[in-house]
Amino acid sequence: MTAPDLLILVGSPRRAGNSATLAAAVQRGAEAAGIRVALRHLDDYISSFLRDCRSCRGPDGECRIDDRFRELLFDEFVPAKGVVFASPVYWYGLSAQTKAFFDRTFCFYAASSPHSARVIAGMSGKRIGLVLASEETYPGASLGIEHQIQEYTRYTHSELVGIVRGVGNSRGEVARDPAAPVVEAERFGREFFERRYTDYRIDTPRSGKVWQA
């Protein structure tokens, strides 16, 4: 199996929900741009939260949780050049499925794992995107999630290249959002590896112009 360049991880249990609608739009845009892309629903791969690795890890150092997380991590996440996390906003945070994905990586990048060097290298230096669906237009509803993903990208020396947020409650209602997030999500997928990312420091050499003629 060929690993995707762009991996889209959907953290909603609703296959036809608003998060999935936006994720599918990202996929359409990426495929239209000729990007090799895979869309995966996290609850197909994760059936358990992180446990205490000191008591759960096998004598060979392997995680003993019997689900498909390892498959997702090594076959698609680690080799992908970019990852888009698509999640509903639950209680002003990520869905449990999405948070579990981040937590479960610990078993594999911890120093006690035989795969830590490979996983750390694969987690680092990616282009990261965030797609959110919420029922509130209130701007602060997603700020906690945006901050968490921003800090994840900085921690892993990655680049948060964009955030798309749509508003809707009933299934697929996000398509009626006047801000047209489905259109923006498709554009985001199409431009995912082209969008400029800047994160300057005070001593960074830079031009006086952002967009060159």
H/E order of the elements? Answer: EHEHHEHHHEHEH
Q: What multimeric state do the chains show?
A: single chain
CATH topology, by name, is Rossmann fold
Shape: globular
Instruction: Briefly note the structural class of the backbone.
Output: alpha/beta
Low-confidence stretches: none
How many distinct folded domains?
1
For the record, the CATH architecture stands as: 3-Layer(aba) Sandwich
Q: For this structure, what is the CATH class?
A: Alpha Beta
Distance between the termini: 42 Å
Give the strand tally. Answer: 5
- Residue-averaged pLDDT: 92
How many helices? The count is: 8
Helix content: 25-40%
Q: Widest sheet: strand order? A: 2-1-3-4-5
Provide the gyration radius in Å. 18 Å
| The CATH superfamily title | Flavodoxin domain
Beta content comes to: 15-25%
How does the major sheet shape up?
5 strands, parallel
Question: How would you briefly describe this protein structure?
Answer:
The chain is α/β, with parallel strands linked by helices and about 210 residues long. It has helices spanning about 20-30, 55, 70-75, 95-105, 105-110, 115-125, 145-155, 180-190; strands spanning about 5-10, 35-40, 80-90, 125-135, 160-165.
